[in-house]
Automatic annotation (TrEMBL):
Its EC number is 3.4.11.2. InterPro entries: Aminopeptidase_N-like_N, Aminopeptidase_N-like_N_sf, Peptidase_M1, Peptidase_M1_aminopeptidases, Peptidase_M1_dom, Peptidase_M4/M1_CTD_sf. Residues 372-398 are annotated as: Disordered. It holds the Pfam family Peptidase_M1. This is Aminopeptidase N. The keyword GTP-binding does not apply. Residues 55-229 form the Aminopeptidase N-like N-terminal domain. Residues 1-25 form the signal peptide.
Length: 475
């Protein structure tokens, strides 16, 4: 009879190695796992994605204004922040034709605005990786919870379109990690029929003539930007370029119906940039300018970096507001959407400073008019007022309502009165300097104010940012 041999006892080191290998496969819970399908933003919890950080987007877009169809490729360079078995990209609508991770085909799955990508092999934590997504179709308009329109917004005719992204509209035209906390550099190439101009973020690197009567516009944005500030505008624009007296390049693209506004903008832009630079610190980007569209479907201006988008010819106050965002919102971006008052309260206060500079009401008089309800901007559509909720507690439905703008600016006026002009403007400059190209929240702003002044300012901010209702003027 044959006798079965007894297995040898493995060495202790070999046994430990076996256990470690088993854990990596998933038995111990420490192996590769899917990245989160949202970052848990207090207002938009499903926006953005976990498990990686994007460093660069390379977007190649071919757009036909006649059919309103887009054919595109996104090259997304990222770094894994955990061991990843799969990860998500935010993308609404459009058809994904193929995806690759580090050159190898990857499986994809769609669920609403979530595109799940499963690489051929898991990605290790801290590994740099490149995802290529080929996609296309007719990009969608998105109606926000507050009723505004964003996404890919076509003109009423076939003359063009614009991609606008606050807070989630960029999901309509390119896949990405679409939360403000994940900022990246961009290179965007847009090919359109001859006779059209395509404008995107950053500076125009070059134009290229393509077969079939088409032109490619190649744009480069080296400074990090949040995806809600990414934009593409396509139209039959008249383009005006130049430099401010201090050498800052500007690029203004205007729809034919709005071309009359360009001379005023050329005069005003240098003045506003220089004035705001004196208040807030050096202008944070490599260029400035604007897109002056003629698209009634939008109905608002947006601080797209570094050339704001204007739905129609902007007045001086609107230019002041949108350019102030280049410091507050663009250079320093809120960590979450709950902190949007750090964008809008600061830009609104820039309007107040501008009015005072031009011989109008003082900032204190404007504050009083807001407090008393005499300023028209203290009220919103439908009877909303600045007292409806605290500036740091908006919901998706009231993200752009008067408390975020007006009462946010009022908090800054109270801070200025409490600490004095020297400390106040020093705080604004330090805020941009310390957080430039990054993210920050309300707590960080309060800490900065208190560290620079050596004062406990908790009561002031509690009254004007956190508490419900109309505070007493002594607060």
């Amino acid at each position: 009879m044959k006798v079965r041999s007894r297995p040898r006892r493995p060495a202790v080191s070999a046994l430990l190695a076996l256990l470690a290998a088993t854990a990596c496969v998933g038995g111990g819970g420490h192996g590769p796992r899917p990245g989160a399908a949202g970052v848990g933003d207090p207002l938009f919890p499903r926006l953005g994605n976990g498990g990686y950080h994007v460093r660069h987007y390379g977007l190649t877009l071919d757009y036909d204004p006649g059919t309103r169809r887009l054919a595109a490729t996104a090259v997304i360079s990222a770094r894994a922040t955990q061991d990843l078995s799969s990860f998500n990209l935010d993308l609404k609508g459009l058809t994904v034709r193929a995806a690759r991770v580090d050159g190898k085909p990857a499986r994809t799955r769609r669920a609403g605005a979530e595109l799940t990508v499963r690489p051929a092999a898991p990605l290790r934590k801290d590994a740099a990786f490149e995802t290529v997504v080929e996609y296309g179709g007719r990009p969608e308009e998105i109606t926000d919870a507050d009723g505004s329109t964003e996404g890919w917004v076509s003109s009423a005719s076939v003359d063009g379109a614009v991609g606008l992204g606050e807070p989630a509209g960029s999901t309509a035209w390119f896949p990405g990690n679409h939360h403000p906390s994940d900022k990246a550099a961009y290179d965007i190439t847009v090919t359109v029929p001859d006779g059209y101009t395509a404008v995107a973020n950053g500076e125009l690197a070059r134009t290229e003539h393509r077969p079939g009567g088409r032109t490619a516009f190649v744009w480069h944005s080296g400074e990090p930007l949040a995806s809600y500030l990414a934009t593409v505008a396509v139209g039959r624009f008249t383009v005006t370029t130049g430099r401010t007296p201090h050498g800052l390049p500007y690029y203004i693209a205007a729809a034919p119906e709005e071309a009359a506004a360009v001379p005023d903008m050329v005069k005003l832009l240098p003045e506003v940039v220089e004035w705001e630079s004196g208040l807030f610190g050096p202008y944070p980007f490599s260029s400035t300018g604007g897109v002056v569209d003629h698209n009634a479907r939008v109905g608002y201006a947006l601080e797209t970096q570094p050339k704001p988008y204007y739905q129609g010819a902007p007045g001086a106050t609107t230019i002041v507001h949108e350019l102030a965002h280049q410091w507050f919102g663009n250079a320093v971006t809120p960590s979450t959407w709950r902190d949007i008052w750090l964008n809008e309260g600061f830009a609104t206060y820039a309007e107040w400073l501008w009015e005072e500079k031009r011989g109008g009401r003082t900032t204190r008089e404007i504050f009083t008019d807001y407090y008393d309800g005499e300023d028209p901007n203290s009220k919103g559509p439908g009877g909303t007022t600045i007292w409806d909720f605290p500036p740091d507690s908006p919901t998706p439905r009231d993200l752009t309502d008067p408390p975020v703008y007006g009462r946010g600016a009022m908090a800054l006026q109270k801070l200025r009165e409490a600490v004095g002009d020297r400390e106040f403007f020093g705080i604004l400059r330090a805020w941009v300097q310390e957080h430039r190209y990054g993210n920050a929240d309300t707590k960080a702003f309060v800490r900065l104010c208190e560290s620079r002044t050596g004062r406990d300012l908790g009561g002031l901010f509690d009254t004007w940012l956190h508490k419900k209702g109309k505070p007493a003027l002594s607060g």
